[in-house]
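Record passed on here:
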Amino acid sequence: MGTTGAFALVDSVRRQGVKHMFGYPGGAILPVYDEIYQAESRGELTHILVRHEQAAVHAADGYARATGEVGVCIATSGPGATNLVTGIATAQMDSVPLVVITGQVPSYAIGTDAFQETDIWGITLPIVKHSYVIREAEDIARIVAEAFFIAGTGRPGPVLIDIPKDIAQKVFDYKPEVEVNLPGYKPTKKGHLHQVASAVKLIREAKRPLLYAGGGAIISNAHEELQQLATRFQIPVTTTLMGKGAFDENNPLSVGMLGMHGSAYANFAVQGCDLLIAVGARFDDRVTGKLDTFAPLAKVIHIDIDPAEVGKNRVPEVPIVGDVKIVLAAMLKSTSYEEAIQTHDWLDQIQEWKDDYPLAVPHYDTDLSPQEVIDEFRKQAPDAFYTTDVGQHQMWSAQFLKCGPRRWISSAGLGTMGYGMPAAMGVQVALPDRQVVCISGDASFQMNLQELATLAQYNIKVKIVIINNGWQGMVRQWQEAFYDQRYSSSNMEVGMPNFVKLADAFGLKGLLVTKGDDLGSIVAEILAHDGPVLADFRVKRDENCYPMVPPGASNAQMVGLPEPKRDRIKKATPAQVTAPLAAPRLDAITEPERVKELV
């Protein structure tokens, strides 16, 4: 007896080990939803109904980042499909494995401008790893197996499957197929042994090495190998926004995040190092600042599974194409625990920078600082999974939270506002027994606030923390610094909802927190509640996020640094010749040439 294409699609997805999918139905995808209904009734699958398709793809994204598995979302044709575009681009920029299923008008109607027809294959072509339009029902099993394989291997990314309605309804002789044969797709996993040996030689010779870990270290689950390499050679480690969690930030070798809002000591370490070991990182502009001044004294080892990234922005002395975990393991295998350590002076210098330019949590008499709210969650929920939206709260969270591998989930490359709460939903669905906290801003949260209904429907126990300053905070900070305080369309006070009443409208627990409240007990109450919580923290309105590397400046040219304890500095360093500024100004800051002379 034959089965429908819709059954073949759902069954093929289920055979990939998928337990959850996120989506929203519509006409063109209804045959597939009918099969989802039946699969759910058999206990084979759980579908989470979101309130907007963008939330479906963000939830699948959060699910994938937290687990390392391929996330799945589904939507109908036309506006359903186009509503996925921002989330697909987010996943592509951050190398997140997704399979995105979209309905399509019947194949015979494609090209006729039929109701709810869009060429989603063409629209998404630049922002997917691969894509399919199913033309024959007999191809469904093969396409699904290939899609999951492509999405989850090599450099991960989103894969689109577009299924016309008549293909979903077609009855045919379905044969499950899971073996994949793609002769033209063979990601390199093992690094070239000669290059590995060359990298080890440079590490042994370096006096001021620095490990620079990006999202690739998280994706490949290389945190243990990274820690072993750092420990064996006593190499300090800095991470990107995507790499956060790849190395224990409580370890003395950690210098935290680098880049535009990274720690001063991480940025100074990059400018002063003589060897930069890039591990699954892509030298993006928010990390490097002015590219030709980035790590000006360093030789570079670049390890990445994507050959297109190696040498794209910075030409390395030793390029290694391969899986980060496998390459680091090969490097460790070729070294010993008795390696001579030559980094004592370098680590002493970095400790001086840490002492002179710490990331401090401000406390005010009349206002609640954003940093102290975030820091309180760090203290009370150190093992939670944290998602964020985008803006100042994201950077403060990156600065002050200390997360383990896969416990930091944030839109980095695309910087997507509205990402945080749907991503947290995906994490919580994947890991129902873990604590999940979404740190958002009042502006970002309003991008997808309708998903409070999804939290309510499924009792998804996410704790949502709104850092509420009444602004699009990062936009306001840039307007203050670079646009003569012309705050064009960045004030969010007028029209802001009462978030506590909003939570109540959805049947959720809501809290308003001000300076007069006991912060510690409030955070404890939020974390202890057995259900979703929406907490509105009213913070200091004009607080800025520092340090900051101004656009077009080098990483040594940070603004907003505290006054250093100069009597403690023993030798000339980038820190010595960088003028600390209380407010963002572009005069009296260190030229890269002077840093090069003085280090």
Observations:
- The chain has three domains: 3-172, 193-356, 370-538.
- The two ends are 76 Å apart (CA to CA).
- Residues 53-67 form the longest helix (15 residues).
